[in-house]
Design a protein that fits this description.
binds glycinamide ribonucleotide; 7-stranded mixed beta sheet; purine biosynthesis; 21% strand; EC 2.1.2.2; single chain; transferase; alpha/beta
Length: 209
Amino acid sequence: RAKVAILISGRGSNMAALLYAAKAEACPYEVVLVASNNPKAPGLQLAEAEGIATFAHPHKGLSREEHDQIMHEAIVAAGADYIALAGYMRILSDEFVGKWQDRMLNIHPSLLPKYKGLDTYQRALDAGDNHAGCSVHLVTPELDDGPVLAQTEVAILPGDTADILADRVLIAEHQLYAAALAKYVTREADPDWILEQVRIRALALEETH
Ligand code: GAR
């Protein structure tokens, strides 16, 4: 099974969804570490209770690069092949993102490319959208900008507030993230898929020369 480290900053409900999904025998990934920049993140306690190794290191007083390096070392020491960001509310250094290129996923509560950043629910309501939703994407140096792997649309109902909508989008997030992560780690192990990626990169290289 592919080895995944989950990075959280708070509640950790997406982390819990990924952990519980991994309890199924057929799940192609296992969670080897839950790490946080916030030692008080409630999600850490849950992970510990589930017997998952945890790591916490506050970012206060450290440069972005220094903190990312500490996290990176803990993740590598845990033997992780992939990182799943799950409400990790820190912008990552380009260096860290580069080290985990194509191996780091994030979940974002909007239908990307719409509403990158914060306040996604209120922005969808203010725009009069009839759907909100969530996206799982690969992490690239630009915030919330990497290739989208999967999305779920969530209908906006009359009378929805940002909080009510957030609760409903979260239900969709929990299902989407576990499914998208499972699919992603499986596809990477598929020789045809790897060949396809090599072909795509070769084409991209040709274009730049
Ligand atoms: C989730 O809604 C996630 O999509 C969002 O933070 C929440 C974390 O909740 N992430 C972002 O906004 C990242 N840009 P959780 O800790 O219960 O998973």
